[in-house]
Structures are given as C-alpha cells and as structure tokens.
Amino acid sequence: MMLEFAGIKFKNPVVIASSPLTSKIKWLMEAEKHGAAAVSTKLTFIKQPFYGKLRMHNNIKLSSIVCYDRRLDLEEGLRLVEEAKKKTNLIIFSNITHDNEDMDGWALLAKEFENAGADIIEANMVCPNVGLSTKSIKGQEALGAGEFGGAVTGQDPQRVRNVIKTLKESVKIPVVAKLTPNVADIGYMVRVCQEAGADGVCLAGAQSSLPLVDIYNDGKPEYHLLNGVSHGSLGGPACLNMAFSQVAQAATKSSLPIIGGGGLETAEQCIMMMMWGATLVTMCTSVMWYGWEVVDRIVRGMEEYLEKQGLTYQDIIGKSLKYLRPSHQLEALEGWPEVDLDKCIGCGRCAKPGHCDAIEMVDDKPVITPDRCLGCGICIALCPTKALTMHYE
Ligand SMILES: Cc1cc2nc3c(=O)[nH]c(=O)nc-3n(C[C@H](O)[C@H](O)[C@H](O)COP(=O)(O)O)c2cc1C
C-alpha cells in the first residue's frame, strides 16, 4: 500500500532515522531487507567540527541519550548516498548541517547531495551535540564559529527561515526541516518552515537531556567509556508522548506533511503517531536496542492493521486530531471503577494511590465507594489482572 510524501511515492511510511544505523552501506542494505521504505543518512558536515565516537546512555525501556558520536564528512556522506542509490531502492534523505553562520555551506551540502542522488534534503536543526551543548553550559555569548549546527539553528526562527530559503533556492529535490523540540512553540517554528518553502518537517524527539548518575561513585554520569558528559539527544520511549504533542501541534498549525518519531517501537505506536498527524514515521533507538526485526514487525503490523480495518495509510493520518480541544472546552463525564471479583487477585494495589479514599480492601477484596471516586483512573491502570473497568454514569 503506497503513500506520498513531498511528491515522492513511499511503499510504506517507515524511515530509519539518521543515526549509526544509517552511517554505512551495510546497515542501509539491512534497512531495505527488513522492509523500510526510506533512510535518513547519518549527519554530514562539510567537515565535522570534532571526531567523536558513539557513546550512549541506555536506560532500557525508558531512554537513550547520545552525547558523542562519529558524524560524516562530506566525501563520506556523498559516497554513502551514491552507493545506496546503486545497491538499494531506498528513498534517501540526506541529513545535513552547517555549523557556521553563513548560508553558503548549507547550499554547497545540499547541491552536492542532490548530485550524488539524494531524494530529499533533511536539514538537521535538531542535534543538541553540536553547538547547543556549548550554549547549554556557557550561555549564548559563548557561541562562535563552528557552533551553529543542529539545534542552535533550530532555535532561531530567522536562521531557520534563511536555511530553508537557501536550500530551496539551491536544489530541485524536496527539503525537509528536522526541528529541535527545545523551543517554546514548535507550531510557530513549523509555520516558519512552511512560509520559507519547506516541503515537510521531521519532528522526532532528540530533546536536550542528561543521564542518570552513579550516586556511589562521585555522581559520575552513567556512560561507558567517556570521561564526562554533555547535554545529549534523547531517544527511546521517554520521547513518545511528547512527540505525539509536537506532531499534533504541527498538524493543526500548518499544512506541511510531517515525519513523526521519538520512542517508536511497535506498529501500534506508529499508527498512533500517524493518527496524531504524521504522514511518515521514523525510528532509531528501538532498532539499535532490539535489532532489525523491529522494522519487520512494524511494517507487517501496520499493513495487517490496515487490511483488517479496511483502511489505507491516508485514512489514518490525523484521525485523532478531531478530539483535540482547549482544556476549558473539555467536559468531564461522571463514573467510577467497578471490579470483576472473578479476575481480582486481592493484591490491594488499587487501594494505594495517595490521593484516593474511594477503594478500601476488605477481606482482601476492593470495596468501592462511588461518590468518593475522583475519576483519575489510576486504579484501572495499576490493576495487574484488568479486574477493574470504568463505569460511565
Ligand atoms: C546514537 C544516535 C545517533 C543519532 N544521530 C543523529 C544524526 O546524525 N542526525 C539526526 O538528525 N538525528 C540523530 N539522532 C536522533 C534520531 O535520529 C532520532 O531523531 C531520535 O533518537 C529519536 O528517535 P528514537 O526514539 O526512535 O531514537 C541520533 C540518535 C541516536 C540514538
């Protein structure tokens, strides 16, 4: 089942996000083998400002934070795209950034990648490791040459506008802005991109983050093989709900097509991201943690869902947006939890929430007083056997 993004046909909505997964031809071929429609190649500079190595904090099931990584220099990036175009049928996004104030570098990168065969330019205005990590510690005044890459550009509407305009004047292929979530109003930044002529936006986590620290070892941040830490890029499940909000803001405040990502691990989550307004979905941490089979499961799961529901990809994009309204226009419905005693194992978790006196355990079974119920639904979420359901008045 095909779908279209920025005038290009995709066999499905799955894009492997720019990361170590997209830094070598070997991995791009894996991406295609496991069913992805597209990849965004690893961030490329004309010349990267420093030669990092992959160092990640991994709090499995919660978050990944990358604060140091090996990027590509222009020649490496171009060879990768050329090889990918020869050896795969993937749609190639070229993820680029320029770390100085001038616009010429952006133009050069975009033209070179277009000539190498890239299908779409993805302007990286998201990475917090190249510039924002300085700004976050020392303050704006410390920013100088080599510190304007990634999120620093993405935080400045005037620069975002200039970059998009420059890229659009430089190449014929579509231009997508991958935007930092570290801004006050993502909807505004997306509108800036639209006004400047962008063909789409990518909103995919990567907010500036810090890891857990070892409280028994001098507060040392939990990274292997690294002597310190900088504010890094957040990935993994911790991003998911925030990403839904970002995508929905973009979808309601502009008409640009959106690539949504951050925390995606399952087909169901990808469908939800599309229901909040994304046309394409992108993932990185889940594939790094659990392997390429994640991609097979996502692609197959989405297709099975659509077939069973009699829907197309197009049908699900933005489906949930009709439920969005300002808080003051929401209306609370009344009700209370009911218990199925055959399913209840008497664990008492439902009676524990600190703010609630609607449930008491009597002879190891919950007894519910409906008029004390505040309606939070926590008891239902906590129940390990799904013995509680909400009764609506
Ligand atoms: C190790 C690592 C390297 C990354 N490198 C890049 C990059 O080069 N360019 C980019 O735009 N995003 C990069 N990202 C961010 C991801 O593309 C993605 O937007 C983010 O991790 C959120 O998605 P996830 O929760 O699926 O990981 C990187 C993420 C990780 C974990």
Note the main attributes of this structure.
393 residues; 22% strand; eight-stranded parallel beta barrel; 32% helix; alpha/beta; binds flavin mononucleotide
Q: Counting H and I runs of at least 4 residues, what is the number of helices?
A: 13
If strands are numbered along the chain, what order do they take across the biggest sheet?
3-4-8-9-10-11-16-17
Mean pLDDT level: 97
User: Residue share in helices?
Assistant: 25-40%
Global structural class:
alpha/beta
**What bound compounds does this protein have?**
flavin mononucleotide
Q: Gyration radius, to the nearest Å?
A: 23 Å
The count of strands amounts to 21
Question: Could you give a short account of the major beta sheet?
Answer: 8 strands, parallel, barrel
Q: Distance between termini?
A: 42 Å
Question: Overall 3D geometry?
Answer: globular
The low-confidence parts are none
Write the layout of secondary structure elements.
Layout: E1 3-5, E2 8-10, E3 14-16, H1 25-33, E4 38-45, E5 55-59, E6 63-68, E7 72-73, H2 74-87, E8 91-96, H3 104-116, E9 120-125, H4 132-138, H5 151-154, H6 157-170, E10 175-179, H7 186-196, E11 200-204, E12 208-209, E13 213-214, E14 220-221, E15 232-235, H8 240-253, E16 258-261, H9 267-275, E17 280-283, H10 285-290, H11 293-309, H12 313-316, E18 335-339, E19 359-362, E20 365-368, H13 378-382, E21 388-392
Parallel strand pairs: 3-4, 3-17, 4-7, 4-8, 8-9, 9-10, 10-11, 11-16, 16-17
Antiparallel strand pairs: 1-2, 5-6, 6-15, 12-15, 13-14, 18-21, 19-20
Helix pairs in contact: 2-3, 3-6, 6-7, 7-8, 9-11
The chain binds flavin mononucleotide.
